[in-house]
Specification:
single chain; disordered C terminus
């Protein structure tokens, strides 16, 4: 048509993702990059705010289970009708010990440049989920403490059904 511009396809980033990639695809690629030791590339899949906060906190990203576990990503659940916030479950299994299993839920936010990881929900037991935001300095300090073996002294911050995840 005269005067109309042809549609262009989204250009993939270094990880092969585009602005149209799903939240699930971003999680899969994030974990693949971490398994391969590509921490810088994995950090690019965090929200802009999480990238800055994790850099300031000197938090090194690492694959859950040290990369020895296999994983499966479930479909996204959206926290808003506008589909701007999503939760994506990821189930991990130890290939040597089939009874060793773990589930993390990635909290995702849609930015102008596509879906990005903002943090994670973990189940420490007892039925309440613990929110660890990669955008929040106090949560990053809690992650540092848990890595340093001081997890029993961490203050709890939980998300319960019916309460908002983001404030």
């Amino acid at each position: 048509m005269p005067g109309s511009r042809p549609k262009t396809k989204p250009v993939p980033d270094a990880a092969g993702l585009t602005v149209e990639s799903s939240a699930e695809d971003v999680c899969r690629e994030f974990l693949r990059l971490l398994e391969n030791g590509e921490r810088f590339e994995a950090r690019q899949l965090l929200t802009d705010q999480a990238q800055l906060a994790t850099e300031r906190a000197n938090l090194e990203l690492d694959a859950p289970g040290g990369g020895a576990m296999t994983f499966e990503v479930s479909g996204a659940r959206y926290a808003t009708g506008e589909r701007q916030i999503a939760l994506v479950d990821c189930h991990f299994r130890d290939p040597v010990d089939p009874d060793a299993r773990m589930t993390l839920t990635w909290t995702m936010r849609r930015q102008e440049n596509g879906w990005k990881i903002a943090g994670m929900l973990v189940d420490p037991g007892g039925g309440a989920l613990d929110l660890l935001s990669f955008e929040n300095a106090s949560d990053l300090a809690r992650i540092h403490q848990s890595v340093d073996g001081d997890a029993q002294n961490l203050p709890e911050r939980t998300a319960t059904p019916g309460q908002p995840i983001y404030r």
